[in-house]
Specification:
Layout lengths: L34 E2 L13 H9 L11 H11 L6 E4 L2 H12 L5 E6 L4 H8 L3 E6 L8 H7 L4 E7 L11 H8 L7 E5 L14 H4 L5 E6 L12 E4 L2 H9 L8 H12 L1 H24 L11 E4 L5 H11 L1 E2 L1 E3 L3 E5 L3 H16 L1
Parallel strand pairs: 1-10, 3-4, 3-5, 5-6, 6-7
Antiparallel strand pairs: 2-8, 7-8, 9-12, 11-12
Helix pairs in contact: 1-9, 2-9, 3-4, 3-8, 10-12, 11-12
This protein binds pyridoxal-5'-phosphate.
C-alpha cells in the first residue's frame, strides 16, 4: 500500500492512553500450589444463592437484560436509603467512572486525583481527552487533601478521592473528607471511590452515601471486591439525581448483563455471609500486618484487602522472589509491590517471602 493512502486515524488522545497492566495470572508449576494475589480479588466463591440465580439468568441469554436495572436499583435504594433515581450502574465501577467523565469532561478539562492511585484513573481521563492533575501522596501513602484542594483550578471538572487508596492502603477519615469537600467549588464534581469500603476499620470511616447528599458528590461502589463478583463486572454510583441521570445517559445500552444484575441482588441479600467473609479477610489482614511489623517492615496503614511494600528499586526483585515461592503479586516498576490478602496459605507464603527478603 502506498504511504500516501490515508487510513483511519484515531483521535490524538488515544495515543496518550496509558496501558492498563492487569495483575498477572499464576503460571502453574508442577508440585507447587500457586496463588494469584495480584488483582485484589476475593478468594471466596460467590455468596450463597448467587450461582442459582445466575444459572437461571444464563438460561435466558437469548433475551436482552433489563436496561433500566429496575430490580437492582430497587434493592440498592432500599439498602442504602436513597431513591432509585440516584443510582447508575455499569459493567464495574470503572465503567461508571468512564461514563461519568464522558458526561462531565470536555477535552482539556482537568481531573484532579492523588497519585499513585488506581491505575484506571489516568486511562479513563485520557480516553475522554481530559487532562490529569496528579497530586503526590504523602510519604506514608495518604491523600494530601490540602494539596488536592490547592490543585483545583478554573478548568477542574472532577476530583477523584480513592479511599482506601489502591495500591497504598490508607483510608481518608469522614471528618477530614467533609472539611475537604467544604473547600471544593460547588461546580466541581467529587467522586468518592469506595471500592474497598467493607474492609475499612478506621475510627472515622467515610460514609459515601451520606456525602452523596451534597449536590456535587457521588460515591462509587463495586461488587468486585468484598462481594466477590469481579468476573461478572458490576458496580454503581449513588449521588444526586441529576448526576446519576447524566451518567446513565452516557452508559452503554444493555451494558450490565442479566447474570450480573441478579448476582448483585442475591449478593446484597446474603448479608450475614458477606459480613463473615469480610471479617475473616480483615482478620487475615491484621495477622499479616502484625507479622510484617514484627519482621521490621514499616508499611502504610492497610485498610483495603491488600498491603503495600514501597520497595522502590527492589520492587522487581521482591516480585520475582514472591513468584518463585508461589504467589503472584502486583509490582509497580520502581515504586513498590501490592499484595492482595488471600487465603491463609497464600498469606503464609507472603510472610515467608517477606521475612527472607528482609534478611537478604
Ligand atoms: C477494583 C477497583 C474498582 C472496581 O473496579 P470494577 O470495575 O468494579 O471491577 C474501583 N476502584 C478501585 C480503586 C479499585 O481498586
Amino acid at each position: 500500500m502506498s504511504t500516501s493512502t490515508p487510513t483511519p486515524r484515531p483521535r490524538a488522545t488515544v495515543a496518550t492512553i496509558p496501558a492498563y497492566v492487569p495483575g498477572r495470572p499464576p503460571v502453574p508449576r508442577p508440585g507447587q500450589q500457586v496463588f494469584k494475589l495480584s488483582s485484589n480479588e476475593n478468594p471466596y466463591p460467590p455468596l450463597p444463592g448467587v450461582l442459582e440465580e445466575v444459572a437461571r439468568a444464563v438460561a435466558v441469554m437469548n433475551r436482552y437484560p433489563d436496561m433500566g436495572c429496575t430490580d437492582l436499583y430497587a434493592a440498592l435504594a432500599d439498602r442504602l436509603g436513597v431513591r432509585p433515581e440516584q443510582l447508575a450502574a455499569g459493567t464495574g465501577s470503572v465503567a461508571v467512572l468512564y461514563h461519568l467523565l464522558q458526561a462531565y469532561c470536555d477535552p482539556g478539562d482537568e481531573v484532579v486525583y492523588a497519585w499513585r492511585s488506581f491505575e484506571a484513573y489516568p486511562i479513563a481521563v485520557s480516553v475522554v481527552g481530559a487532562t490529569s492533575v496528579q497530586v503526590a501522596l504523602t510519604a506514608d501513602g495518604r491523600h494530601d487533601l490540602d494539596a488536592m484542594a490547592a490543585a483545583i483550578g478554573p478548568r477542574t471538572k472532577v476530583v477523584l478521592v480513592c479511599t482506601p487508596n489502591n495500591p497504598t492502603g490508607p483510608a481518608v477519615g469522614h471528618a477530614e473528607l467533609v472539611a475537604f469537600l467544604d473547600r471544593v467549588p460547588s461546580h466541581v464534581l467529587v467522586v468518592v471511590d469506595e471500592a474497598y469500603r467493607e474492609f475499612v476499620r478506621h475510627e472515622d470511616p467515610v460514609d459515601g452515601v451520606a456525602l452523596a447528599a451534597r449536590p456535587n458528590v457521588v460515591a462509587m461502589r463495586t461488587f468486585a471486591k468484598a462481594y466477590g463478583l469481579a468476573g461478572l463486572r458490576i458496580g454503581y454510583l449513588v449521588g444526586p439525581e441529576e448526576i446519576a441521570a447524566a451518567v446513565r445517559a452516557c452508559s452503554l445500552p444493555f451494558g450490565v448483563s442479566s447474570p450480573a444484575q441478579v448476582a448483585a441482588i442475591a449478593s446484597l441479600a446474603a448479608t450475614d455471609a458477606l459480613l463473615a467473609r469480610v471479617e475473616a479477610l480483615v482478620a487475615e489482614r491484621a495477622r499479616v500486618t502484625a507479622a510484617l511489623a514484627d519482621q521490621g517492615w514499616e508499611l502504610p496503614d492497610a485498610q483495603g484487602n491488600f498491603v503495600w511494600f514501597g520497595l522502590g528499586e527492589r520492587t522487581a526483585e521482591f516480585a520475582a522472589a514472591a513468584e518463585a515461592a508461589g504467589i503472584v503479586v502486583r509490582p509497580f516498576a520502581g515504586e513498590g509491590v501490592r499484595v492482595t490478602i488471600g487465603e491463609s496459605a497464600a498469606n503464609d507464603v507472603l510472610l515467608e517471602v517477606a521475612a527472607r527478603f528482609r534478611d537478604a
